[in-house]
Amino acid sequence: MARSLNRAFAIALLCASSIAVGLPAVSTAATSSSQATAKKSKAKATATPASSKAKVVARKNTAKSASKTAVVVKKPSRAVASAKGAGQAAVVASVRRASFGPMSSLDHDESASTGQLSLRSSTAFVQDLNSSDVLFAKNDAAIVPIASITKLMTALVVVDANLDLEEMLEITTEDIDTYKNTGSRLAIGTRLSRTDMLHLALMSSENRAASALGRNYPGGLTAFVQAMNAKASLLGMHDTRYVEPTGLSSSNVSSARDLVRLMQTAAQRPLIHEYTTSTSYSVDVRGRTQTFRNTNQLVSKPDWGITVSKTGFINEAGRCLVMLANIEGRQLAIVLLDSAGSFTRTADAVRVRQWLQREVAHNTL
Question: Which entry of 122, 148, 250, 339 is annotated as an active-site residue?
Answer without folding.
Answer: 148
